[in-house]
# Entry
Amino acid sequence: MKKVVIEVPKNRSEKIHARFKDVLYSVTEGEKTARFTLYIPDDMLDELIHQTNGSVSAQTRPLWTGLIPDYGTGDDDDRGTLIEVTTPDFVISPFVEKLKEQYGLTKKKSKTPIEKIIAETESLTEFDQTKFILAAIAGLVALIGLFLNNVGIIIGAMLLSPLLGPIYALAVYVAIGDLKTTLRCIGLLGLMVSMLVGIAALATFALSFVIPLALTSEILARQDPNAIYVLMALLLGFATMTALSKGIPEGIAGVAIAAALLPPAIVTGLSLVLFPAGAVKAAVLTLQNIVGLIAGSIIGALFLNIGPRDLFAQGMSRQFIIRILWFLAVLIAFLVIVSFLV
# Structure
């Protein structure tokens, strides 16, 4: 059950009265604005937001972040347009119970509103020192596990690694056609992976003066690029997007991303010190997994119908997605060919 508060200028309030006839709501009218308070089942939220977008203005926009300055024609009235969604602890109402029963009979699939998805990913598009420190610690733990040939330690490092964020956010912003934020996500992902490679190289160089280091079977396994890893990464990226949309915690879903990225990146770094020829192979495997995960995540976003609400923006985002997917397809083909040559 969701509580939705919609505040609009009075001259637009009449447009949305008819939209709420089938739900429980109250109206509070002020001097310049009207505030609607609604209680609706979770499954009705996305459709209600979609209808509200079309009611408060003929010029809708794909993003909704609470205060919406882009609504309407740019008048000062736009400052009075507000949509807020919260989840109450509980709601007691015979009308709500009847609505739940009636709505349950439709068996309509629930869809997470794009606005909520964007709100969840906003923090993932900015540099977060804590997450980079956590990634560095996960990299060092994975390095120890690789040298000890201990699968349990490597898995433990995957549980720590925050590599999911940039890839998830990248897929979402590609789906809504936001080039600027997409490039920022690519930069964050590249910086994080480069940091892992650098830390692994420095730590290996330092350890080589203290203890003898050998190439274990776990390390050698990450120096064998193969086309099958691209398919694995595609499936993992797709599965991760689907899992997150169904409410599976990020910490669990992120293990799949870390499994594909963390060990190969660490092996690339340590191989630069111990076995430079193997570093090329590990780097190719790392790139295969990165590209595959990104492509799979974008396909997952398309499968989940993640995209802007505005029809014009939808057309623009589709063109953007097609170009990105073509680029990734060419890059995947190139990396597959290289895997046979190295």
Notes: The chain has two domains: 2-111, 117-341. Confidence is low (pLDDT under 50) at residues 58-76.
